Amino acid sequence: ELKAAFANGVNAQLVADIEVEIPVVSGKAGNFLTIKKGATVKLDLNGFNITAKTAEITANGNTNLIINHGTFELNGEGKISLKHVGINMGWNALSAVITNCGTAVINGGEIVHLGGTDMNYAIDNNSNGVVAELEINEGYITSTYRPIRMFVNGRNITVNINGGTVEAGNNCALWLQHSNTVY
Question: Which of 17, 69, 118, 180 is 20 to 30 Å from 2 at the Cα level?
Answer without folding.
Answer: 118
